[in-house]
Amino acid sequence: ASYETIRVERKGRSALITLDHPKALNALNLQVMDEVVTAAEALDRDQGTGCIVLTGSDRAFAAGADIKEMRPQGYMDMYLSDWFSAWDRFAQVRTPTIAAVAGHALGGGCELAMMCDILLAADTAVFGQPEIRLGVIPGIGGSQRLTRAIGKAKAMDLCLTGRTMDADEAERAGLVSRIIPAADLLTEAVTVAETVAAMSAPVAMMAKEAVNRAFETTLTEGIRFERRLFHAVFATADQKEGMTAFTEKRPPVFTHR
Ligand code: HXC
């Protein structure tokens, strides 16, 4: 497929989607949404993909939903088209995803980063949900995912004042898992992706599914869900390989089955 607002590259079993719409700091208009979702779903269907990295530019991961596109819309336009509902499909991708964030990750940009499974931040990263300054609220899950990630105190602070937080604050708050010097962000993100992609693909998918379940259900139900998946991994060839390799003191070679 050919895209106008993103670039897609394969790197072995991992793949890189780069938001490439620099004139508006990667503002997430409907075309960007369509292209990112189409590309991510195609990679997800391809069993050769073990991990997907999503990144932007040095200046901006994405500075939010496209304000100029949204400005003239009315309630019925938004409601009837279910504006931005396609982003839900990005969050449904089963392959593990990594957001590699440098610069602005604001509004929809922060929300998109939070849809990814691992969030890596360059030391230049800036996160926020500044929608309130525009007279709106987050619309791609920000009020829910930010609150689950960093708790009510900081989520309220960010959503009500529109202030941003830097990479250090985001890491302290638990929004990002690692801070990486900006110059090394992409290399490091691809290394993490290759690490994940080398694992058993079905087992990685199950691990992702199990962790995500923690946000959807009670502890008892979540543990039951985990237990079912845990039993299921013993039906994989990769479980035999992983445990055999350990006993033979050699690295495992997973067949992703
Ligand atoms: C459309 C945007 C944009 C956006 C930046 N641009 N963000 N266009 N939508 N979200 C455009 C600018 O208009 C400008 O284009 C160009 O990108 C460069 O931006 P500047 O403002 O000149 O850059 P700078 O001074 O460095 O400031 C960077 C910035 C600022 C702090 C990130 O651009 C900014 O505050 N952007 C808006 C951030 C925001 O409010 N995001 C939330 C959006 S609402 P021109 O053509 O003028 O040069 C949202 C809702 C999600 O995401 C849910 C909805 C359902």
From TrEMBL:
It comes from the Bacteria. The keyword Lipid biosynthesis does not apply. The keyword Lyase applies. It is an enzyme of class 4 (lyase). Its EC number is 4.2.1.17. It catalyses: a 4-saturated-(3S)-3-hydroxyacyl-CoA = a (3E)-enoyl-CoA + H2O; a (3S)-3-hydroxyacyl-CoA = a (2E)-enoyl-CoA + H2O. GO terms for molecular function: enoyl-CoA hydratase activity. Keywords: Lyase. Belongs to the enoyl-CoA hydratase/isomerase family. This is Enoyl-CoA hydratase.
